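#struct-help
A.M.: can someone run this one for me? Single chain, 462 residues.
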Amino acid sequence: VWKTSYRLILPEDSEGGQPTIQGWAIVENTTDEDWDNVNLSLVAGQPVGFTMDLYQPLFIPRPDIPVPVLAGLMPTVYEEGSPALAKREFQSQMKSAGADRFEVRGGTAVTSSAGQPLDGAANFGFSADEMMRYTAATQATAGEIGEVFQYTLDAPITIERQQSAMLPILSSALDGRRVSIYNRQGLSDHPMRGVELTNSSGLQFMPGPITVFDGSAYAGDAQTGHVSEGEKRLIAYAVDLDVDVKSDDKSMSRVDSIKIVRGNLVQTTKRETGVVHTLTNNDRKRSRTVLVEHPKMEGWELVTPSEPSETTESLHRFEIELDPGEAGKFEIKFKRVDSQTLGLENYNRNTLLVYHRNGQISDAVLDAITEAMRLNAEVSKAQEKITGVERERSEISKDQSRIRQNMGGLDRNSQLYRRYIEKLNTQETRLEQMEDELEALRADLEQKREAYRDYVSRLNVS
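D.P.: on it. Structure tokens below:
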């Protein structure tokens, strides 16, 4: 697998000019033979590779299958197809100059036949234009072959066994702009210095590291994945210490409305959550374009701003312009509406009156709930009466057990024994009365329950 390495040179004039990207292919001869004047093509792609044991013999047992029986044929439904996109053809010829071939003898240094170094450390005395020229001319022709993209070296190369070479394959101006990228999950106090690049080179970029120069000064390192022609990418190469960011989380939840649907309270709650970023550009000379990244929130609706500048699979990006020395606040807010079904008994009257005063409950809903509460209170009173009678009956039963136990040791002609007999007679009379009372009370309770259920089941009030 060949690898790539890039140099990105940003123009010294931050307000104009295009970034320039230069790329090298890192090719390694890992064999035990020298490559002498080899024609080399570098193909971009990820082919499927695997190993298989073809040495061991294979024996396939014959399966035992039943006698075939002809079954009825079922109709076939074919999926609808889409017309294939016409294959895009392009052929981009890179400029080539200088060498007839590349050579590596006894080391990893790479030179052209003219002895010019193909890559090296930056000379910080160079200007940006000199930095852009500080590389060997590209020695590859790029283009598509079949379904893959390839760079074909214009001249044969020579690489000795177990050696490697860095071969210049591209040098192109790109559409791009300087940006600062803020993601709270990565760094909370400062954004990252970065560049928004569009691959306008007509080529495909392979994954690899990028060394970034701001003019002729080293600015930092970055990394890129595969970038097809016309695609846009963000790269970050350093912390932007001139921009400070402070973030405050904001959240709110309030009951919006309460309705009655089929006898149940349907409570609608509005929830809001978000963050307020305070951004300060301490750079007194240069403005900033800040891209603020915020995670997407499943089930929430973006309110402020109404739309992001850009959306990825997992986050939103918002663009903010800061003049030199300017500070400003930027709010991101999401909202959602939740509905919850509750029983009428989940609220007391005082809470409902507060909601009514705030306009969250209509007069009709308040009146309906008040009537339902009155009917439910009647049910509770009827249940309390039954509970009182049953409690009295239980107490009498306990007292009778005590009296019978005491009577076992008394003379039947004694005054206390006769007294116990009279009390038992009185209690028995009361127990008989209680049975009649309980029957009437239970009937009254069921009647009140039915009245409550009938009223509530027909309630649909907004």
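A.M.: thanks! The chain has four helices and 23 strands.
D.P.: also worth noting: Helices lie at 128-133, 349-357, 363-407, 415-457.
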